[in-house]
Structure formats: structure tokens, C-alpha cells
Amino acid sequence: MAEKPRILIPLPDGDFDPTESATPWHVCSRRGWEVVFATENGAAPAADHRLLMGILRGPLGAGPKGLAAYQAMARSEACRHPIRYADIDPAQFDAVSLTGGHAPGMRPYLESPVLQSKMVQLWKQDKVVGAICHGVLVLARAIDPDTGKSILYGSRVTALTKDLETAGYVLTFWLLGRRYRTYPCYVADEVRAVLRDPRDFKSTPAMLMPFVVQDGRLVTARWPLDAMAYSLRLAEMVEKRIAA
């Protein structure tokens, strides 16, 4: 294991959520961790431009703290020079954080068989795995060839809930049409379908209160308002494992 924690943050080339990507980067960087970004072909990533317009100008836009963290992340050498998905060596990392986002540019990331294969390897190497919002779909679609099941099978998780996904669509349809309805199937429904028991998908009616689900070395969250609680939990999990 590395002398200091090393975390992998895979991203699509574009259209990801700035808060959900930059908050883990901010928390881990402040703790002195090494952060490595990965994109499909090694191109520098860029967040959803609509979300970078802020709360007042862009529906569902990032808040001031999320925007500031993203701008700092985007300037960092690590973010400007990511590795390729194919070059990810799971043995070199202590943890991974999978970000979310709604817009169409997320699909190559969410559907990448290369990235899914790397997540299976990370999982089987007993790494700390975190995902937020649509990022949980990467794990849901990561099928362990030894079992034929998703690596989430048997775990308790959360992800973007149906209520939140519906609200996002309703709030943006007047301006963006179906841009933020990533797939016909709701994220929550797809994730539930790969679990051992649909009741292993956890939620809460308190939309505005941070909500994180930890199950062993797996931590998941729903949306940007969970990002700080999610990031702190992920960091604490890794540091406890290293200390032990």
C-alpha cells in the first residue's frame, strides 16, 4: 500500500457533476492524498457547462462552494493530465470515487466495459469503493465473471432516488427537454435490479439532509447535497484501514 493514500477518480470527458467530482478531490487533497484522474482516452475532463452556470443561472447548477472546488480541481495538474481507463492499475490505489451527472456526455463513462472491468478488479482486491448519484450505475453494471452478478450483489446501497431524478427532470424540462433524463430506466430501478434484495436499496424522505450509506468498504450517496458527507466518510474509511 502507498505511503500516503492514493485515490482514483474516473470521469467522463464531459457532462459530469462538478460538486460530486470536486468535493472528494478537495477533501482528499486537503488531507495530503495523491489523487489520480482517469478518462476514456486520457483527455482533460470538463464538467457539465449547464451546472457551471450556478444556482441562479442554470437549473440544478452548482453552489458557490462546489464551483470553487471544481475550478481548483480543473486547474490541478492531476486533472489536466488524467490517465486512460485502460491504464488503470487497481493495485496502485487504496480507493476509488465514482462521480455522477445527468447529461448525455455521461453515457460513455457509465457504459464503458473497460471501466466496469477495472471496478471488478478493484472490488476483488478489497479496495474502498465509493460512488454517488449516477456513479453507482458503474458499479451496478460491473459484473463479476466468477459469479455472473454485479459486484453490488449482497451490499446495501443508495443512489439517485426516483423522487430526486423525477424532480430534476421536472425542474429542467421547460429549458432542456430530456437532457437530464439520462436513461428511460430510473437509476434507482436499475440499481435495485442487481441487488440480492431490493430492500438493500436505502433512501430517506429527507431530501435536503445529507444521506450516506456505508456497508463495509462500500460507501454510496444520492446527489450533490450529500457530497461533503460522502467525501468525509470515504476519506475516514480509507484512513482507518491504513491505520489498522
Describe the protein.
The chain has ten helices and eleven strands. The two termini are 12 Å apart. The longest helix has 17 residues, at 227-243. It is α/β, with parallel strands linked by helices. It is globular and about 50 Å long. Helices cover 39% and strands 16% of the residues. Strands 5-3-1-6-7-11-10 form a seven-stranded mixed β-sheet, with helices on both faces. A two-stranded parallel ribbon has the order 2-4. It has a single domain (6-243), classed as Rossmann fold. The model has no long low-confidence stretch (mean pLDDT 95). It has helices spanning 18-30, 54-57, 64-75, 77-80, 107-110, 113-124, 135-140, 162-176, 187-194, 227-243; strands at residues 6-10, 14-16, 34-39, 46-47, 83-84, 95-98, 128-132, 143-144, 149-150, 212-215, 218-221. A hairpin with a 2-residue loop joins β10 and β11.
Gross geometry:
globular
| Helical residue percent band | 25-40%
Helix count from the secondary structure assignment: 10
- What is the residue-averaged pLDDT? 95
CATH class group: Alpha Beta
CATH homolog superfamily: Class I glutamine amidotransferase (GATase) domain
Structural class: alpha/beta
> Distance between the terminal alpha carbons, to the nearest Å?
12 Å
- Our estimate of the beta-strand percent is 15-25%
How many domain units? 1
**CATH third-tier fold name:** Rossmann fold
Number-wise, the strands total 11
Order of helices and strands: EEHEEHHHEEHHEHEEHHEEH
CATH architecture: 3-Layer(aba) Sandwich
